[in-house]
Amino acid sequence: MSHGPRISWSSLEPRLNRALGLAASRVERLVTSQPGSFPIYTVNGRWRHAGESWTEWCGGFLAGMAWILARRSSDPEWRRRAEKLSLMLAPRRFDREVHDLGFIFLNSYRPWHQATGDPAILEVMIEAGRTLALRFHPKGRYLRSFLAPDSLFIDIMMNVPLIFLAARETADDALRELARAHCRTTERVLVRADGGTAHEGIFDLETGLFLGQTTQQGVAPDSTWTRGLAWSLYGFCQVHDFTGDLADLTVAWRNADCFLERLGPNPIPPWDFDAPPEARFDDSSAAAIAASGLISLAQSTRALDADRADRYQARAVQIMDALLQDHYLAWDQPEWEGVLKHGVYHLHKNLGVDESVMWGDFFLLEAVDKLLDNPASTGQIS
Ligand code: GLY
Question: Considering the domain boundaries, does residue 255 fall inside one?
């Protein structure tokens, strides 16, 4: 079965390596010129600005990039930077103000633990997972968002794997059941029949009853905020890797099929699939998350459904082929401090609109890393 235009490895590989070099130069510049800072989005291409954060959730992406670069580079300085950045994040393991501890610790302490096997590093992730679990609302059976106790966000699907990790490492069944309950609630209230997702769900705190879907960053309560759908696709895929439960993989498939269906022949989505034509900005970060998520999903799917796996892999490669072009990458613009241009953070608040965003840079690099690791698995690549 054809899965779209063939992209040759000989055309892709030099651009993967060029993107790796670009990421190395941008991260090096940031950590040396602004040590101790964990920016979220650029303003006119600059990480340093006075714009608000909305919430502090991106530290793990900068550290995560340093870990990828440490693994790929022979320069020991990268390992030193990765450890230093990760250590700066350690106090966040007790942070009860955010739902983002998975973003922070899975991308920093997990590669550190993989590199060393050090139980003290693992313990930091376990503590962070337990902290995240304190957000569980027993009546509604969900982890509440940073905004309010009655609010559930689709983004939390990318963080809940940290609780599964803590549960597995401590053989804590109650912790695992809580995480599973969150996934089933998210599937029930935020994932729609077409596989799309709502950004937010609201609950009655007294009864735990679900009241309805709404949005913070999307166009409307019933629109499909593109990044949220990418978070769900990748989040359910990662959860399946912990649970082995087909219910989790099936949600990731439904999300992926909706994402790809709504993309149509275009490789890069708008920030909301229902954005009106006059405000239809690209969100390159959603494309990068989806590409990296689809590569992982293809891997998790292959033994069950090889054709589906080939399709996901081929579409991921098409997305990456589009992102690894001058329009999206800042390789010819030394003054631009990010790697991936044309991302969107929060359109309604006018934060990071048509800018670089830290998770966009991270997931682009993660996808580059995965493709360089395993070129033979790249479906349509010849
Ligand atoms: N806070 C997660 C996001 O903006 O996607």
Answer: yes
Dig out the tokens for 126 from the structure: 């376990």
Q: Which domain holds residue 139?
A: 9-377
246 occurs within a structural domain? yes
Tens of pLDDT, residue by residue over 120-146, are 999 999 999 999 999 999 999 999 999
Ligand 1 center to 345 CA (angstroms) = 7
Q: Is 99 in the pocket of ligand 1 (CB under 6 A)?
A: no
Element (H, E) at 343: strand 343-346
Start-to-end CA span in the chain (Å): 15
Atom 2 in ligand 1: residue holding the nearest Cα: 155
Q: What is the CATH number of the domain that holds 91?
A: 1.50.10.10
**pTM for this one?**
0.97
6 pLDDT band, cuts 50/70/90, is confident
> What is the percent of the chain where pLDDT is above 90?
96
CB contact set of 76 (below 8 Å; sequence gap of 6+): none
Q: Are 85 and 63 in contact (CB under 8 A)?
A: yes
**Assigned domain for 1 exists:** no
* 213, pLDDT greater than 90: yes
Question: Mutation test of ligand 1: which of 359, 361, 363 has the most ligand atoms closer than 8 Å to its C-beta?
Answer: 359
Read off the pLDDT of residues 317-345 as tens digits, 9 standing for 90 and up. Answer: 999 999 999 999 999 999 999 999 999 99
Residue 3 lies in a domain: no
Kindly give, in sequence order, each residue whose CB lies less than 8 Å from that of residue 250, ignoring residues fewer than 6 positions away. Answer: none
Query: What pLDDT score was predicted for residue 382?
Result: 41
Answer whether 369 contacts ligand 1 (Cβ < 6 A). Answer: no
Which tokens is 44 given?
A: 């006119």
